[in-house]
Amino acid sequence: MTQTTTTRQHLAKKMASRACLAAAVAASSRGGVSAFGKSSIGRSGMMARSLSTISSSNNRFSSYPTTSTSYAINNSELSNRISSVAPSRSFQLNMSTVAAGATTARRVKTAEAEVSEEQVSIKGWVRTVRKQKTLAFVEVNDGSNMSGIQCVLPFDTVDEDTMKEIDNLTTGCSVHAIGQIIKSQGGKQAVELSASSLRIVGECPGDTFPLAKKRHSLEYLRTIAHLRPRTNTIAAVARVRSTLAGSIHKFFQGEGFNYVQTPLITASDCEGAGEMFRVTTLDIDDVASLPRAKDEEGKELAGVDYAEDFFGKAAFLTVSGQLGGETHACALGDVYTFGPTFRAENSQTTRHLAEFWMVEPEMAFADLTSAMDNAEAMLKACVGDVIEKCDEDLEFFGKFFDKGLKARLDKVVNKPFVRCEYRDAIKYLQEEIAKDPSKWQFPDVEFGTDLATEHERWLAETKFDSAVFVYNYPKSIKAFYMRDNDEDGGETVNAMDLLVPGVGELVGGSQREERMDVLVEKMKELDLDVEDYWWYLDLRRFGSVPHAGYGLGFERLVTYVCGIENIRDAIAFPRYPGNAEF
């Protein structure tokens, strides 16, 4: 058999399968499948009902023609084809599960529910159940919004199977309800589902479900991180986080930036701090088997010979995608990275994670002013999107976490950011601290001080009542790649931090050092192995240009926009010292 013949047969089978699917959908519609009833097409009823459900929920198969020269297949052939196929057990289970709730009703997300005469389908998880003499109220949430939807089930109109299901409803079980969206007769919601039928999809034992209908502490919820998205707080955080992520991509794509995915495994320490997670395949459980490093004379040294490791050298999880981003900025002009980064910092504060996401744009032919302008525009655009799209969630955060949240976010969007030199910031702090040093945890502030959170927040919240860029930091407290300022003989670097009320530092950036000789000297001062950065130095050897960029800690942005205090609640599964669950 030739390859051409095999290809034709494969194509014919594929076309026949598509025709089979389309015919099943068409037959389902002609057979008049009721909400949970049987089809009139005989043995293929389960297949038809299942395909009808799939088609109605996502319309993937609705475009396939039911009659054409290439794909036409009659009902008899359809039944024979289905009867002759022996589906796998997993396929049978999946199709049966879908068939159990088969319907031609269109699925509607609760966030998009509007009054209509159309029969629609609601799928989600039960929050509360209230049973009265003549009807039941079931609050269903599908995750698309905070409030979900109330399903009203009048006992005199629902079917017998639904009546049985009502008795088994519990908080947390998943359900599939069908009915009409009508104007609500109650005052707590605008619309509700007048349900004609309801089925339990997945049971949830009330006596063991750890999320009873009461307020739980965020500390407790971190111990059940796999279930905490079902709570109002964490679900709202997840929706805001999703909106922010989409807005970040939309902003940079709209500005003509290219999205670059930089490696997570690296041999370079971007920050020069040494707080990195090591990646190795060496058997560290068998210490005696570890290859030992040797000197030139062959004598064993104290360390491990990582030349014998998987990558042939010591490797780590990256603390930043910046260095990789610079390589593409020096070819594509403007780029950004958006991905996970890691830091082995033994910190238990509410501001630090061991695994976190960073947004890191890099711009060629740009200086620090360009970076500050871009960061301000990006934050205004992203926060503006959240205000527009997540109003219900922001109302919730404003009620339970930060009563001034909406006003603070409005300022970010509408008020220009302040720009203040580091030397001036130190002067303002010294003047304020001198009034009463006992109020400050860190009262000693001078040129060269790495600002603490209390200093940053005072500047943003009290001194300026605004987001503020502090720039031109001392060289001694900043990273090696930041460009020395010529004006003061290199005492400061062309770097900035963006400080915001409620959080402190949110963004850190700089103009990068494009002069190779200056960069090499700085690396030597920090005991960085120049050979490890040969590729980074090549950017200065071959067509070097002034360029700048910054890094935005994504989880810090989420905490800022949501008004929550602990960064461990801004990410699905927080990683920090002593915790790597789930």
What's the gist of this structure?
The chain has 582 residues and is α+β, with helices and mostly antiparallel strands.
Describe the structure.
The protein has 582 residues and is α+β, with helices and mostly antiparallel strands. The chain contains 16 helices and 19 strands. The protein has helices spanning 3-30, 45-58, 75-84, 89-99, 160-166, 218-222, 232-254, 322-332, 368-389, 391-400, 405-414, 422-433, 453-463, 516-525, 534-541, 554-562, and strands at 106-107, 119-131, 135-141, 149-154, 174-183, 191-202, 258-259, 265-266, 278-279, 292-294, 300-304, 315-317, 334-342, 355-364, 418-421, 468-474, 492-500, 504-511, 547-553. Helix 9 (368-389) crosses helix 11. The longest helix has 28 residues, at 3-30. The protein is globular. It starts with a helix and ends in a 20-residue tail after the last helix.
Write the layout of secondary structure elements.
Elements: H1 3-30, H2 45-58, H3 75-84, H4 89-99, E1 106-107, E2 119-131, E3 135-141, E4 149-154, H5 160-166, E5 174-183, E6 191-202, H6 218-222, H7 232-254, E7 258-259, E8 265-266, E9 278-279, E10 292-294, E11 300-304, E12 315-317, H8 322-332, E13 334-342, E14 355-364, H9 368-389, H10 391-400, H11 405-414, E15 418-421, H12 422-433, H13 453-463, E16 468-474, E17 492-500, E18 504-511, H14 516-525, H15 534-541, E19 547-553, H16 554-562
Parallel strand pairs: 1-2, 4-6, 7-13, 15-16
Antiparallel strand pairs: 2-3, 2-5, 3-4, 5-6, 8-12, 9-12, 10-11, 13-14, 14-19, 16-17, 17-18, 18-19
